[in-house]
């Protein structure tokens, strides 16, 4: 009796371009938000809060549907974009609860 080993598929370690771009755009948006909050200036606020994370989210979703590629950067890019949107909603939601004239 012989021991037969099945061939195991080796997962591709190539990353998707859309996932990588999604991750990099999310990092740029987080950097812009942090610089704006640290230095108390508005550094391209509309672009950072809405357009870049939305584009990053779309690219990350596209990166999830590619075949035979690693989806790690796509998942990280999506999670960072969702974090930016949740941060944006929480920041404005909590700012509206402050009552300047009690």
What does this structure look like?
By secondary structure, the protein is an all-alpha fold. It has one domain (17-98). The protein contains three helices and no strands. It has helices spanning 17-39, 45-64, 72-96. It is elongated. The chain starts with 16 loop residues before the first helix and ends in a 6-residue tail after the last helix. The model has no long low-confidence stretch (mean pLDDT 86). Keywords: Membrane, Transmembrane, Transmembrane helix. The chain crosses the membrane at residues 20-41, 47-65, 72-98.
Write a concise keyword list for the protein shown above.
102 residues, 67% helix, transmembrane helix, membrane, transmembrane
Fold topology:
Elements: H1 17-39, H2 45-64, H3 72-96
Helix pairs in contact: 1-2, 1-3, 2-3
Termini separation: 86 Å
Instruction: Tell me the β content.
Output: under 5%
Number of DSSP helical runs: 3
Largest sheet: none
Order of helices and strands: HHH
Keywords: Membrane, Transmembrane, Transmembrane helix
